Amino acid sequence: MNLFCLGLSHHTADVATREQFTGSATTESILRQTGCAEALLLTTCNRVEVYAVSQKRVSTDEIARCLTRRIDIDPHDYAPPFYRYEAEKCVQHLFRVASGLDSMVVGESEIFGQSKKAYESARTSGAVGPYLHRLFQRAFRVAKQVRTHTDIARGAVSVGSVAIDLAQRIFGKLSECKVLVLGAGETSERTARALISRGVRDLRVANRSIERAGELAQAVGGRAVLFDEWATQCREIDILITATASETPLLTPGELAPMLRERLDRPLFIIDIAVPRDVDPGVNEMEGVYLYDIDSIRSVAEQSLALRRQQIAAAEAIIAEHVADFVDSISRGLNRPSQAAEHSPLGENPLRASEL
Amino acid sequence: MDRYLLIVSTVCFLAAVVHTIVELRAGLFRPMRFNFFAIGLGFIFQTAFLSVRGHALGRCPLTNLFEVFVFLAWSVALMYMLVGPPYRLSLMGAFTAPLVVLLQGFALVAPIDIRHPVKAPANPWLEFHASISIVAYGAFALACIAGVMYLIQERQLKTHQLHSIFYHLPPLTHLFATITRLLWWGFALYTLGIVSGFFTGHPLPRVQVVAAIGVWLLYATILQGRHLRWFAPRRVATLCIIGFSVALALLWGIEFTAEMSPLP
Prior knowledge:
heterodimer, A: alpha/beta, Rossmann fold, 17 helices, 49% helix
């Protein structure tokens, strides 16, 4: 049996090319007609991949033809940049994909869910047999181990998630936090929604237009407050998100100092996503105040990405161990359970192996 | 024989330290489970050492500076075992182990395990006074460690430079709540220790009384300052570190029970 993977990803093809080869609901059954005993189609916004098992070699062109959405495209003439991995390389590739190592944002977890969904869909349609079943089950296990035993998924990499991550590092549970959103623009709404999704229950919205504040408050499940009251609100709140169109800073150290005296043992986290900034940078020097503007949030996101990249070597080591074990178990036959899979010292403590 | 138990205990704590350093260098900060077990094992050997030494002496093993340091290290580990898991501060082990290694390492290396001649029989009040005071020191030590963790986390948040350790330290507010709890525990135990000193039936050395009251006043001021919001959390964390450093330094000047209830 030949195990192989063929696909296009953000590494090899632009979106215009990828969107020509996204396959369809019937692709897996068509693939089986071309000689694939088992076939699974994984389609995300960044990749389209076919994982298959066949008795004889199935050409790249044949697979590509199954993936084309337009009948007037001949992959043979078009020569899209498909990559193809066979046997061990295919196993390694899937483990890397499921673990988020091959993703555009290294360590992102969405691909794990997408892989699971693709597997479930193929299993339901009967396109998956024993080989792909074991391959994908192992891939999910590897992905979980990589996430648990490395920092590959640590840290946030988008503006909204950085804000939430930092808030959690300051306050712990966000359900007890009081939040004031100043300005009712799109960015404010996104950040407010993200906070609500993480358990914030007390969210207030202030905007120069009280109607717009009311709309946003209603949309996210908060309450509108008068814009003139925002400074008073600062005495009570824990998190302030500002995104107004003000040309001059709304909050300066001089204005904040009297409020801080009343809340000395409670930190104040300020996320200033306005340009020009709503909060004077000097505020960050004040005791118990943590100010992040858009640049510092981006800088944190970049640091998180750098941290994730540092973890790639450790993640690759875990994957390499599993690839070797999986290939060994397949070569020993599907009927015999893999010793490593059941009682692997790697499974119990993958870092030990990776450190060696 | 009993020193071997202490050496094994120190090795266990050292293993926790080495494990943390290795993981930090590899950028894989996962010390929780290993550190907890290493410290737990070290604590068992510490307890065995103190038990063997106590049986040999026929009294609480606090008769010289060597035993005081070991008892203090044991108190630190005890407080960690008590405070760590409930507050999900198992990472505290990564910070606790070096302090214990330092205390026990010093006790083992320095020529301070000197046996004093017998002058008086064992006095339960005196033993209670000395031991409860050292356990209070353990709470102050852990408050100091939580203070260090707070300052590290706070510094990273202020400067916007987040390192790997940032994601493994508890939230600032949790750390501050833990510091406050540990300060209260330490203060209550220390007060009990001081009060029990007056029931020993012996006149206490003046230097010991002055030092003990000085430490008590220092922690009373920190707690009062925290309660009345004179001090911001960062200042409280800093004062915890200063307070414990002062308290530890004063141990040098205090001859605990040695003069009053020497070895049989």
